[in-house]
Fold Glucanase.
Amino acid sequence: MLIKRSLVIAVLVFLGVTQAHADAGFYVDPDSSPALWVRAHQADPRAPRIAESIANVPMARWFGNWSGDVHKAVKRFVDKADATHREPILVAYNIPHRDCGGASAGGVGDAPAYQVWIDAFSRGLGNRRAIVIVEPDSTAQLDCFKTDGERDERLGLLRYAVSRFHLNAPAADVYLDGGNAHWVPAAAMAARLNAAGLSEARGFALNVSNFYTTEESAAYAYSVNAALAAQFGYSKPFVVDTSRNGKGSDGQWCNPPGRMIGARTSGASGAMLPVWIKVPGNSDGPCGSAPTSPAGAFSPELAVRLIDGD
């Protein structure tokens, strides 16, 4: 029998999650793609608006195959954040078969290479405070694998990642990605997250790079937590990516027009922590309202559309 939402919330309050980030200041990345664009285009009339509405907001830095020596890259980033006495937000995005061959295809070549990479990532954090989102879409995309062996390998790599962060970066709050509110049924996602090592992580992340409202995401999170409590005897706090959910979703995922930036990164509200994980203005791929922009490339046109809700 599913546990009622009120009981789940009570459990989470007992665990202390309501105060985990309430007083934390989050790091504004001066080298995010929108910030770099603004500095390089100060005469552009769009620059002040992009600076105020996007570049000056705390958001995640993504690390993957483009990061070079990931230990040095992570350490450099968290060292800068530590010098400002602010908490950085990082995304690990380099698992084999990333995005199942889609617009963000890539990742390291095999499981041993990923273990080396994630170990280096976690050691780069050291004992610094940080929020780490582990491998967006990785649990939701289990269905793209054809065999149980492939799915087991993916889950094993996620468990390995959680264990290395626990060992090498004990002050980091690690969140396993849990897809979005309209992808995998809550009970199935709870089972996947548990198999991926959620019991040893801080919590799970929802809506990464997607557009569903915070209310939809929170309702789904409560359902996942109810299933976790019923099946495995525990519940977890959760992160919601609010970077582009100001108008909700129209069912499209790749640079859809008419979307809008959402509530800025802030402290926890109950069990939920709203965070900008996707960088607004970074393309989802060569599609939608940015047909020539590859995945991850910053587009000022996309950024202004998100500011205006066009």
Q: What stands out?
A: Strands lie at 61-63, 89-92, 130-134, 172-177, 203-206, 238-241, 272-275.
